[in-house]
Sequence to fold (245 residues):
Amino acid sequence: MTRAPILEARCLTVRRGNRVTLNALNLAVHAGSVYALLGGNGAGKTTTLNSLLGFVQAASGQAVVDGIDASVKPQEARSRLAYLPENVALYPYLTGVENLRYFCMLSDLSLTKGQARELLNGSGLSAEAQDRKVALYSKGMRQKVGLAIAQARQARAMLLDEPTSGLDPSAANEFAHSILAARRSGMAILMATHDLFNALQVADRIGILKEGNLVAELDARNVAHDELEAIYLRHARGGMEAVNP
Fold:
C-alpha cells in the first residue's frame, strides 16, 4: 500500500484581497524525498510554505502536514515541522553548541553537550566552529546550526525558504550534502528556491510556480541543468501552460 505524503497541497487556493496568490495548487512530498519549488518573486513559493505552517488561511483546498489540515490545527501541524528561513536567527553571543541546546530547551528537549556536538557534526559544522560565538559565523555555518536544530526536534518534515541564497559555491555544496543526509534520515523536505543547480543536486521532484500556478512538474533525475534552465525561462517569459505529467 502506498504511504500518504507527509506534506501535501490539495487544490490549495490562497487569496490576498482580490488577488489569487495560489491557484488550486496540488503537490505532494513523501518521507525521504526532496521537492524543490522554483519560481520568481511573487510566484507563490513562500505562500506555499506559510500555508503549511498555518500562517496563511486557505480560501479553499487544504495544506496538509502529516495528515493534519494546517488551517484547522496550525499548532499541531507546526509541531511536525522544522522550518529553515533564508536567514537563520541565532543568538550571536552564544556558541553553536549553546544555541542548539537553547533552542532545543525551548521545545522541551534536553541535549547534553555530547549530543549537541553529534548533531552539529551531522549537519557538517566543524568541531572547531561549534565552540565559537555565532557572531563570527558565516551564513552557511548558521544554516548548519539550523539544520541541527531541525534534526534534534525529530520533525517529520522540513521547509526551506531560499536556503542557498547568498552562499558561495563551496558553502552551497556543503549545504546540499546536509540536505541529502536529512533526506536519508527519512525527512520529507520542501524547498523554495531560485537556485536551479541546487534544486537538481538535491531534489527528487521539481515544480515551477508562476503567478500562483504550478506550470510544470519534473522528475529531477531525468532533466539536465540546461534543459531545466530552458524550461524555467520559457515559463518565466511566456504564458501559462499545463503541468507536465
Summary: Confidence is low (pLDDT under 50) at residues 240-245. The CA atoms of residues 204 and 220 lie 5 Å apart. Strands lie at 7-16, 19-29, 33-38, 60-65, 68-69, 81-84, 157-161, 188-193, 205-210, 213-219.
